[in-house]
Amino acid sequence: MSALTDSGAWRALQEQARAEAGLTLNERFAADPERAQRFSLDAVDLFLDYSKQRVGSRTLDLLFALAEQQDLAGWIGRMFSGEAINHTEHRAVGHVALRAPRGSEIKMAGVNVVPAVYEVLDRMTVFADAVRGGTWRGATGMAITDIVNIGIGGSDFGPRMVWDALSDASIKPRVHFVANVDGAQLSTVLYRLKPERTLFIVTSKTFTTQETMANARSARDWLTQTLGETAVDKHFVAVSTNGAEVAKFGISPDHMFEFWDWVGGRYSLWSSVGLANLVALGPQTFRAMLDGAHAMDEHFRRAPLKVNMPVLLGLLAVWNTNFLGAASQVVSPYAQRLRRFVGWLQQLEMESNGKGVDREGRTLDYATTLVLWGDIGTNSQHAFFQMLHQGAALHPVDFILPVKPLHSLPEQQPLLIANCLSQSAALMRGKTAAQVRAELIARGMPEGELDAAVPHRVFTGDRPSSTILLPQLDAWHLGALCALYEHRTFVMSVLWNINAFDQWGVELGKQLAQQVSAAQGPEPDANAVAALDASTLQLLERTRGV
Ligand code: F6P
Q1: Are the C-beta atoms of 388 and 28 separated by less than 8 Å?
Q2: pTM over 0.90
């Protein structure tokens, strides 16, 4: 048994889960007319209603006791003071510095990094103005109409999600994203573009990621076939921490926008990784997003734990995961523009907290992050909500709803809102056999058919969810929302005593991809072939010669 699962705070929560196992959400609401207000929180212009979670005051007190036991306040302080809390990579964790106001101070390893952040932001802004204003021109003198961001993982999910959330058809230049090493993606994007008017941003923290470099080389070939080698200078810029590799690729240091090893890939959309968005959406919009995130940072850093939104979300996730036995975490944004939000959040959450050992390297005897999945409403109501309502397992849901629309179609927003609110109500309330029976009788079902029909139409209810309201989906509120989930992820990691900022789990696959690559081709490396297992070898033989 680990120190955590053997601790008083953990055992008290297990006991509490047992004690309240039979108490339903409907009963909780019936017993407490103030419940909706008592279990809600306004912060940073967002509203969180967690009254449909299976918690009461006692459970929350015990969760806060667990947070205290795990020194959550101390860990928050350590992150903001730039301690090397990513201890397996000996790195501080500084994404909060990327959205700090100009002139403020955030130290990483003793050095105030805010001036360096602004130096790069200012360069990005000058560059953006040049591209937007048409003074940055391609090799043949034409202005840029299209930007292609080439990157994968954190160098793709965040920027792509932001572009989808904040762009509209009028925005110029257009941004396209290429991540997959499957050439189907790059070739589809290039098919629509003119080399003379296209700018490539190669975005890679390491500038060694196999997929990104393959896409970047193919894009360069496409460009130079038409415009010649010298065109690279005006059509390629880089976002990276690795100046040497950028230079090797042939991109001038003047066209490289730096970020730093204290910015994790999945926490990097606020850095120069967001360059395509800063150019296309404009520096003001990008700034508004940073400001919204900063407001959430300040709330997270300073608000007492009991009224701290990321803390509450993290504690609820731990409660559902470790004490209620939830099978997964569903996130359902009721906003078409947030169609990429879950993808971004999946990397954030599962690359951060999908860990099997604690900070000291001991195998865990408790679950860490659950599978996080979901999709936008209302589409998902017609896909997997059946399972959420009547499936055997428990899947807590986070509903996210921007209240005011940015379009002017009067009929539709009330419908979207009604659907969102009714899904969480239905999950909670359910429908008893008696209610079903009465409904069927009222509809005229013959008595003899009732017994067979009723069980299929029963909803057990008591399925937990939270709802987060944003006034609207502008850049500021998007920034606050993303920072909310970043900090929630960190809170969970602290409670689980794991490192949320390394990602060793992706390394083995990367290593083996190099090995399998060496075993391919007309002259395969004999050692690489010998190192493969029989199954992989068989598959390799069947895929040779493409
Ligand atoms: O998937 C592993 C990972 O290291 C992510 O953390 C990162 O976001 C992604 O690869 C891309 O890495 P890079 O930006 O160095 O190309």
Answers
A1: no
A2: yes
